[in-house]
Amino acid sequence: MPSSSQQKNMINIGKELCNYLKEVVSTEAQESENAIQKDVDLMIQNSKKQLNLIEKNFNLKISCSNNNENSRGFSESVPEMVRNADISLSECGIVAGQQASIIADRIRTDAAKLERKGLEMMDAFLDCSRKTSWSMFACYKKVVGANMGPMKDFVTDTVRAHSGAHTDFLILRRNVAECIQTKLEEFKTKIETLYFYQ
């Protein structure tokens, strides 16, 4: 049978492990959120460069057009269209940033719950370690019987949720790319329609 100090040492290692898991998972969530935000910001910047190129291409087509009087009227409406498209592209990024924060917060909350449950179990073991030999065994048996099954289920659910959150990050990135593509296509269609009806 382990000595009292060996039991306490094992329990302290269990507590450290619970805390370490929470810290690692929380750090990973923050880094994932930051990486997604950086990636989204880069996608938005690149899409705004594309927007600028589409505008320049339109202006070049208009300047080469024979109908200068109509061309001037069309080219004056383009800056507002560009501003609206720019705002729409920015909104794709804003929504993504909010969703990334929600996903990361969910990961951190799950990690904190897991730590709390683990620490509660370690505290129950610590209480058992203070009892005399036969009552200590009965106490350990009771704690293990009452907590191991639910703890296993909780850990399994937390790991699944954690995995799902990373899938959510990937889906979020794809959704941003689709949002950007949709907004750029809408702008191109408006510009091309404007050009062909001049």
Automatic annotation (TrEMBL):
Origin superkingdom: Eukaryota
InterPro entries for this protein: TsetseEP (IPR007931)
Protein TsetseEP domain residues: 77-181
A UniProt-annotated Pfam family: DUF725
Protein name as catalogued: Protein TsetseEP domain-containing protein
Organism, as annotated: Henosepilachna vigintioctopunctata
Lineage, top ranks: Eukaryota, Metazoa, Ecdysozoa, Arthropoda, Hexapoda
